[in-house]
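Changelog note: in this version the structure field was regenerated for every chain. One regenerated record is shown below for reference.
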Amino acid sequence: MNCYERLRHLREDKDLSQTDIANLLKTTRQQVSKWETGAQMMGVDKYITLAKFYNVSVDYLLGLIDTPRKLQG
């Protein structure tokens, strides 16, 4: 699974809308849609925010590993 598919799956698993994530990241629903379809890449700061929100590592969000690791601390 690539990173943009993973973003969508995590959001849907939490029963959140793109608008919910847009509000969290202080952006628009349209921008979230672009990230989730792979039309645009998301900035590192947004990945960090989502990693903290979902309590998973950034390498999981990026698709570098397939098993989610919880954040330490």
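Spot check on this record: The chain has five helices and no strands. Residues 3-61 form a domain with the 434 Repressor (Amino-terminal Domain) fold (CATH 1.10.260.40).
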